[in-house]
Amino acid sequence: MTTALHRLGAGIVVTLLALGTAEIAARTVWSEDALLDAWERSDGWVTWEKDGPAPQPNRTDTLQDGPYTWRVRVDARGLREGDFAEGDGGAGPAARTFLALGDSWVFGNSVDQGHTLADVVEARLPGLEVLNAGLVGASAFDMLRRWQALTLDRRPDGVLLGRPHNARRTDAVRDRRRAWYDRARPGPLLRARAYLLVRHWLTPWRGPRYAAPSHTDDALLADLSDLTAIVTDARTAGAPVWFVAFPDGLGVPADPRWSAALTALGVPVVAPVLPDRACWGFDDLGHPSARGARVIGELVAAAIAGIPAIEARCDEE
Questions:
Q1: Rounded distance, CA 237 to CA 153, Å?
Q2: Tell me, what DSSP letter sits at residue 307?
Q3: Angstrom distance (rounded) from CA 39 to CA 33
């Protein structure tokens, strides 16, 4: 009995020494903040769900805007990608891959395949691939879910966020959004660094982690909260973000709260104004034409490249 107790005591001592050594080593290498889930820190969120909204994959359509025909191709990932006439196209593997998220303005309503905002930016910046993950009718909450669904396995090198226009959609998903966020789980049981390290390594298998922002009936504030989640998550992965403050209409700039909020986060903002009639669709005055998309894309490309840009007019070729 005495021998067994001695062995038990020795085992406990060895185990405590090992745990202590592991804790000291973990504290030497990792800060506590680096080992917490993103949503547990004050600067962001992370989740592991795949069921965000997405367009129906593998389809092509030919649509009309008055007498103007615009064609759409959506690939197996639900992205609006590939030249309509020439297959997937491209000039070889890109050095960097950006993800463009937004509503129908990013998707490119009234814009023919190969001429969307993402296509223009890609054409102006060699070596950059810009994946068009726009969602027609999307709110920022839809964009957040889309971001998480597309980046579970691989994070992009950069993100283009298009300002959403669909306040009614934001209002319609308010309850679902609240329930989704309110499934946030409590923080770690222990603050021991070795425990946090093991917990951090097991994150992909531990289930979803959600933030719980203050809920609001103001659609714009709710959208900004969701966009902040994307920005924070992207930065956690080292991906820079640019925000496109799409205007409200012909010559009408976006609500300045969009630019103010994103600028405060350190996100470069491109805020185009489209005063020319040629900037807009034929009958569809709610979306830019291919010329409008070209102008916006050139401004965004200049912002990414860090060079001054002169805002072109859509009636200029």
A1: 12
A2: -
A3: 11
